[in-house]
Design a protein that fits this description.
400 residues, alpha/beta, Rossmann fold, 60s Ribosomal Protein L30, Chain: A, 2 domains, ten-stranded mixed beta sheet, 10 strands, 44% helix, globular, Tubulin_FtsZ_GTPase, Tubulin/FtsZ_GTPase_sf, Tubulin/FtsZ GTPase domain-containing protein
Length: 400
């Protein structure tokens, strides 16, 4: 990142679910830090057309979204809910993906890779694409700015009631985002959200509402690096966790709280009650608190950076926590008194999330061994074993 510049983010979304999330970026009045650096990809022409239609309906300007911001890749008409097929499609068209990224983004400091983990296209392609951008591009394929890009994955867990295959995909997808097959780190940061956690326990399929919550959390995270009131930015988000070997996170958010009524510590508590996956906040090893307040409250000294840090320390002490992290105070437009808080929780025990899927994963694995499950073509027993060993090794390190 150039001295004095804001971090330039770019979004790569793959699969129908990832495209649905990315399409909502276009509907926002502005995307500070992202602007129009957005690419949606899919292996199925109808799905990519649906995404483009959603984007066209959300924007007012005349723009050729399909030829600029959308890409169909691979020679299959969809991945068939097989992450092997999604990865294979990305392998086939990696050159086209790279060239489109160069054309759409021009340059960027950080990529936000978006996928829902229950499917085949995004779940298959995104871990592969991250690995290739970090480790696989040859001279001529890459450009100098790509060498220092930070790769953040936004991964969404399927609803708990979805079929076994989707939970099998999710467990494998999480492992592949965290580690490449040889056991090395893949994404620099993996941010998790669970549909059922955000949608009233999964009682209805409200994708738009869930996705808006995800984007709000992303806005809070990105916004912290765009002002000067106690700045933390993506380099902090990945550098500090790297010391611990813990780079999975989930947002916990509380918004619209009246800063004239509520104390900051209360706001921290409210945010901690709303993590985006089932988890125990006390198991977190790292927390990045971001407080977003009206410019007028910051200018008048009603909320200050030292106060945010003091509250973070007091909040830890109250809950008997001893965790790493940096705090940030960032302004938002308008006067008012509504304050928003993001707690970016990292290195926590993954058991409460995985408990919703491990039985289904095991069932599909057994079916694959008998040749009785769809979506297993091309997946070797050795690869599946290594995927699980990688996940177990990561969990052992984080959960003691």
């Amino acid at each position: 990142m150039s001295q004095g510049q804001f971090t330039r983010w770019a979004v790569i979304a793959s699969g129908e679910g990832g495209g649905r999330i990315a399409s909502q970026f276009f509907s926002r009045a502005e995307n500070p830090g992202i602007e129009d650096r957005i690419l949606v990809m899919n292996t199925n022409r109808n799905d990519i057309r649906n995404t483009v239609d959603r984007i066209d309906a959300a924007i007012t300007e005349d723009a050729d979204i399909e030829s600029t911001h959308a890409l169909e890749f691979g020679d299959l008409a969809g991945a068939g809910n097989s992450y092997h097929n999604g990865r294979k499609a990305a392998e086939q068209d990696l050159d086209r993906i790279i060239n489109r990224v160069k054309r759409v983004f021009g340059t960027a400091d950080a990529f936000l890779h978006v996928a829902t983990l229950g499917g085949g296209t995004g779940n298959g392609s995104i871990p592969y694409v991250i690995d290739q951008f970090k480790n696989g591009l040859s001279v001529g394929e890459s450009e100098p700015w790509m060498d220092s890009v930070i790769h953040v994955a936004m991964a969404v867990w399927p609803f708990y009631w979805e079929p076994d295959q989707r939970h099998f995909n999710a467990v494998c997808g999480l492992s592949r985002l965290l580690k490449v097959l040889d056991g090395g780190q893949n994404a620099d940061m993996v941010i998790l959200a669970a549909n059922s956690q955000l949608d009233d326990g999964g009682s209805r399929q409200n994708y738009d509402g869930v996705n808006e919550m995800i984007i709000e959390a992303i806005d809070l995270m990105i916004g912290a690096g765009r002002e000067t009131h106690g700045v933390i930015d993506i380099e902090d988000y990945v550098t500090i966790p790297s010391r611990y070997g813990s780079y999975h996170f989930t947002p916990a958010v509380a918004t619209g709280m009246d800063g004239n009524i509520y104390e900051l510590e209360y706001m921290f508590d409210k945010a901690a009650e709303n993590p985006f996956v089932p988890m125990d906040v006390a198991t977190s090893q790292i927390v990045f608190p971001v407080v977003r307040a009206p410019e007028s409250m910051i200018e008048n000294g009603e909320i200050t950076e030292p106060e945010v840090y003091r509250t973070f320390n007091e909040w830890q002490n109250k809950h008997d926590l001893s965790i790493a992290g940096q705090a940030s105070l960032t302004p938002k437009r308008g006067r008012g008194s509504d304050v928003d808080v993001l707690l970016l929780l990292g290195g926590f025990d993954l058991t409460p999330l995985l408990d919703h899927s491990m039985d289904q994963h095991q069932q599909v694995t057994e079916n694959l061994a008998r040749g009785a499950a769809p979506g297993g073509e091309g997946l070797s027993d050795r690869e599946l074993q290594q995927v699980m060993e990688n996940l177990e090794e990561y969990r052992d390190h984080n959960e003691g």
